[in-house]
Amino acid sequence: MTAAPRVLIVDDQPDFAKGLVRLLAPKLPAASLACVLSGEAALADLAIFPCDVMVTDLRMPGLSGLDLLPKALALAPNLGIVLLTAHGDIDSAVLALRAGAYDFLTKPVDSDHLARVIAKGLERAALLHENRRLRAAVAACGVDPGLLGQSAAMRHVQDTLAAVAASDYTVLIRGESGTGKELAARAIHAQSRRAGGPFLSVNCPAIPDQILESELFGHVRGAFTGAERDRRGLFVAANGGVLVLDEIGDIPMSVQTKLLRVLQEHEIRPVGSSKSIPVDVRILAATNQDLEARIADKTFREDLYYRLNVLTVRLPPLRDRRDDIPLLATAFLERACREMGLGDKEFSPEGLAALAGRDWPGNVRELLNYVRRLTVFSHGDVVSAAAVANADPGHGKNAGDDEDDGATTPYLEAKAQVVDAFTRRYVERLLKQTRGNISEAARASGLERVSLQKILRRLGIAAEGFR
To answer: Domain 6-139, what fold?
Structure first.
């Protein structure tokens, strides 16, 4: 899109075309309006200048509106085309709608109604543009959707994952529940020299204490009641690859001692055996707990902590990277549609803003499951803000919502509040990251510099305050 959305008026009567531009300009202050006097001139214009909505007369000498339609869409497939027709041309207008026109109006044209139709067409263009941008960003990242992100926090995580993958040291992956710790472990494995080896993961607290030792290190026949044959443990099974110890903070002290020996000596001793077995396994440990506090209360060995914490990856909670929510939601919607065998769906800008304005205590995992729910219950191809609210009315308040005082805010006003709250949060974070440099902020956000300046003026945000 250009700095301002563009509307092209096509009519062979100069006075009508120019008059329409004058009437519409104050009603569409954010748009750039232009006019041409023939279908041929419209095609020439579209070949040079991007355009979001075209309003064209149906009957014109030379190239008619109906003939112009397919040629214009061939040049600009996402162009919203509004036809102006006489009463006797309704059948032709219906044919045009079937051929891809956005809408049609009969003459004489009410300028207020036409302005509303164009405004909806511009919203559609913004939706298509935003979804193309998000899908391109998803495709360009080339990582698991759960690790997607263009925020500074996630760019740091992605750089860290690539760096630690190049070594063979033990890694401690820290983060709240649902932030994607196992995904981070898989990303490290995939980028490492061990990528061709096994990748095994064990959820430590899910296994009873008396069984966990055998599960990790194996046992020999007769080691305990029920041990009827030798069993190799996960360390042996993961030889040459990676073993992920999920929720490492919950393992019992007895297992911590044996694990420390594995890290020191690179060998394991099965339960009931007197012989040690050498192993070549990289350990990635993950936790959502405060290990330092566990050390202080003597439930976690300090020497094991330092053995595990050679390299550290910290995954930020979703509340610290709200800017990534539209990108994540778009990727999750594509995944959910594939999982269910559905055609493509997309979010409306208001739908994305509604998601970005919510709190997600369950982090990325909660957002993924919420988008799956939206995919099931949303009818049509567009997931709106109303669908986001209706999927789970008790989910929580949107950021910026006022306490319920019994009054109902008009829809357009409520929508504007949500969008403004998201935009203000996004822009302030952007300016903080770029230290008030508007040109750099525009490049990072994908916005034109002029568009970003308009947003700052509208919200009363001074870039100088971030320098």
So the answer is: Rossmann fold (3.40.50)
